């Protein structure tokens, strides 16, 4: 099992290549480092610390350098999974799903009165 905090430790110590699947015989080391760096930038807690999508694409393509990641992503510092009660409920999941589905189906049918197929002669996908 992969431990996300180990990935940060490896990044801080410039050992990102240890994250690569050991069964791979050949890979581009600089590309691996670039992908990990972009991933860490995109998972920063503050939106202002994350790069724009155009910048992400440019970094992935190698057109611009990957910015230095200065802080550990929030999911490594703020989330703890010691208390699983927030993830487990005593409610019947089928009942909860049914309520959710019926609410959104009825909302969608009220907001989308036009049931004409988008292409002439094609059957409607939603009724």
Write the layout of secondary structure elements.
Elements: H1 4-12, H2 29-42, H3 53-61, H4 74-77, H5 93-111
Give the tags.
5 helices; flat; 127 residues; mainly alpha
Description:
With 127 residues, the chain is an all-alpha fold. The protein has a domain at 4-77. The chain is built from five helices and no strands. The longest helix is centred in the C-terminal third of the chain and has 19 residues, at 93-111.
Low-confidence stretches: 100-112
Give the percentage of residues in beta strands.
Answer: under 5%
Number of helices: 5
Quaternary state of this entry equals single chain
Helix/strand structural class:
mainly alpha
Mean pLDDT: 74
Shape: flat
Computed over alpha carbons, the radius of gyration is 22 Å
Strand elements, count: 0
Measured as a percent range, the helix fraction is 40-55%
Provide a brief overview of the structure.
With 127 residues, this protein is an all-alpha fold.
């Amino acid at each position: 099992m992969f431990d996300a905090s180990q990935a940060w430790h490896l990044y801080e110590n410039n050992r990102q290549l240890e994250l690569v699947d050991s069964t791979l015989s050949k890979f581009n080391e600089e590309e691996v480092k670039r992908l990990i760096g972009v991933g860490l930038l995109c998972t920063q807690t503050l939106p202002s610390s994350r790069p724009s999508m155009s910048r992400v694409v440019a970094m992935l393509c190698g057109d611009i350098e990957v910015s230095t990641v200065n802080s550990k992503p929030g999911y490594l510092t703020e989330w703890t999974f010691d208390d699983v009660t927030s993830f487990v409920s005593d409610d019947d999941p089928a009942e909860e799903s049914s309520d959710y589905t019926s609410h959104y189906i009825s909302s969608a049918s009220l907001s989308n009165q036009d049931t004409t197929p988008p292409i002439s002669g094609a059957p409607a996908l939603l009724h």
